[in-house]
Amino acid sequence: MKRNIIYAAMLAPALLLTGCKETFIERPSLSGTTTGNYYNNAEEVRAATSTLYSGLPWRNYESRAQDAIGDVMAGNMFTYTDTEYLNFSVSAASERIGASWGAFYKIIGYANVMIKTFEEKKAAGGDASYLDPAIAECHYIRGMLYFFIARTWGAAPIITDPGATALSGNFNIPRYLQKDVLRFALEEMQIAEKALPESDVPGRLTKYVAKGMMAKLYLYQKDYANAKAKAEEVINSGKYMLVSDYQGMFTKASMNNNPETLFSIQHQFAADPWGTGNIKNPDRGAGALRTSEADAWEMYVPSVDILKEYEFGDLRRKWSVMEQGWTNPSWKPQRANAPAYNAFMANGFKYDTLQPVNDGGSLAPTRSNIVKYFAGPGKTFGGDPVLGQGSGNNVVLLRYADILLIYAEAILGGQASTSDAKALDALNKVRSRAGLPAKSAITNKDILHERRVEFAFEGDYWYDLQRQGYAAAKAIIDKQDRGTKAYSSFITNFSEDKMFLPIPAGEIVQDPELGKDPVPYYK
């Protein structure tokens, strides 16, 4: 706890002001910086808060933990690496648990420090016109992350002033009840909603982003009335729309911050894979697409089960999954000293499970690979720019399709079914883009199916299963085939204690209170 929360907060000012290339996430030098001689204009303040969006602090969550927790555990992905998530044998020593916990609390530490710093600047006469929106950005990030923490671990610590905690010397911080962590998250987003602007440059937070994430949180709590109201405000704003190029949202840097995106992690294309680049590329890419520019080692592949989930004619299948016959004529990967491979790829990439692997064939365990967030074999070979592991594609955490499906589900509101015109309109907009016929009535099963295929490989389906409750989640998980094309595998050990992940073992060693029963945060 001390390492990830307290120390991260103390180091935050130094990281906030590290230089970067793109205007959106430029940070000035820290040299000589104090609240007295800095944060004197909007540009300096926005440069600091842009760190909260940057890929650098988010990396340990989004690169693999998001996949392992959100999709492998949910039955959407198969892997030979994170098998403990595949078979529900996750221990407190899991690398992905520690990575996501550390990333979340580190970013919260940055937000905590900035809130305190900007409030002090205001008290010393700083201009509220640009300090207040920045403070609101920090509250949104803090609220969103506590929402993510509550969904992942259930009960968890809440830290708002790590500096005071460090000075007190009392590092025995308890876990707080999940309902209190969710309440705190909601209150943070309500603060943000009031002070964020109506609009901003693409990629920056606005009050409608806060409304959208609040709708998602309300839905998680089964507060259908408020989920509907907040989703409706986003819809009625007219600020967002479904984009026609579904695949491009995830594979083209040119589509970063498109009109469907409410919130995304902001990435830069950079040669250093441990910097601000998106490093999902190699974990998802077909090995046949590995080149001198792009790594591709297919750590995560679509599960057999999700391939069965797509309806006939659903365009999202080819937009999300590579399988036999999938092509991209623009991609023409070539390799040194590989004449058979080069000849096979000369007219464009074709996903072929019959061709020998060394000659360009693809033989992933489920005979499929993931399209989402795979930018391609590199610019030289007809794809987006990629260097090794890194690409410049943003990672989307909330998009308009989610708002539409939240709205439809909120109107359903736990009923057996609904033919409400507004609910149908929202859900059928999502289906229409996928080339599917409209529905005349919808059930919870319909919505859960739609969410699964719409957000496949985006790290969200585990939480959709979790919020169904243990009995319903178990019934779904028990039926999932988690094997490969060669063998089937079904879960027999899913139990209620696996609905939330364990607190990282190293954190409990440092703070034994985390190993005890949770306590109320609100008195």
Descriptors:
523 residues; mainly alpha; Serine Threonine Protein Phosphatase 5, Tetratricopeptide repeat; two-stranded antiparallel ribbon; 21 helices; 45% helix; disordered N terminus
Task: Describe, in plain words, how this protein is organized in 3D.
The protein has helices at 2-16, 42-49, 55-72, 83-86, 95-123, 128-153, 162-168, 178-195, 207-220, 224-237, 248-251, 281-284, 304-309, 316-320, 339-345, 400-412, 421-433, 444-454, 461-466, 470-478, 505-510; strands spanning 77-79, 261-265, 300-302, 321-323, 327-328, 349-350, 368-370, 386-387, 390-391, 395-399. The protein has 523 residues and is mostly helical. Among the domains are: 2-196 and 502-515, Serine Threonine Protein Phosphatase 5, Tetratricopeptide repeat, CATH 1.25.40; 397-495, no CATH class. A two-stranded antiparallel sheet has the order 1-3. Helix 1 (2-16) packs across helix 7 and helix 16 (400-412) packs antiparallel against helix 17 (421-433). The two termini are 23 Å apart. InterPro entries: SusD-like_N, SusD_RagB_dom, TPR-like_helical_dom_sf. It is found in: Cell outer membrane. Residues 303-516 form the RagB/SusD domain.
The whole-number mean of residue pLDDT values reads: 92
Shape: globular
Main sheet overview: 2 strands, antiparallel
CATH architecture classification of the domain at 2-196 and 502-515:
Alpha Horseshoe
Number of DSSP strand runs = 10
Briefly note the CATH topology name of the domain at 2-196 and 502-515.
Serine Threonine Protein Phosphatase 5, Tetratricopeptide repeat
Radius of gyration, in Å, reads 23 Å
CATH top level assignment of the domain at 2-196 and 502-515: Mainly Alpha
Helix content: 40-55%
In the predicted model, the low-confidence regions spanning at least 5 consecutive residues are 1-32
Number of H- or I-type helical stretches: 21
Q: Strand fraction band?
A: 5-15%
Instruction: Strand order, main sheet: write it out.
Output: 1-3
